Please model this.
Amino acid sequence: MPALRPFVRAALGGVLTAVVSLPLAAQEAGIAVGSRAPDAAVTTLDGKPARLSQFIGKTPVVLEFWATWCSNCKALEPSLAQAVQALGTQVRFVAVAVSANQSPQRVQAYMAKHRLPVTMLYDATGAATDAYDVPTTSYVVVIDRAGTVVYTGSGGGQDLVAAARKGVAGR
Model:
């Protein structure tokens, strides 16, 4: 075992050097924090045309890109409920159902069963997903009252109360 220590040290040193020399980025995918929230055409669950701009620039918005089959989205539901309870009068909560492997009818059935406290929209053409450069479902974008992206994150472990407060604070 002692003979391996110099080899392990050398190998770890090489890995650390490679990692340290990589360019650093604030985020790897998705719309950049600090950018202007884009508009996109979506539909309501009953098929009527809608636009994300209907919600942006009036109050802070928590926007989640979501799917019925997404386990991270399901894991995020308690945090979403807490955020709505804490800030629901100050922040608008909007979910955009992606069209991959689901239909508006499937989303409607899920909403009826689980009663998510959000305005649910459907991204039939992928316009919203493209506009926000969405890397995965459970992707959350918080937009402040001025229409600036102040938070992005993905996964089931996000603290949506803290994220939504960034929208209220404007940073």
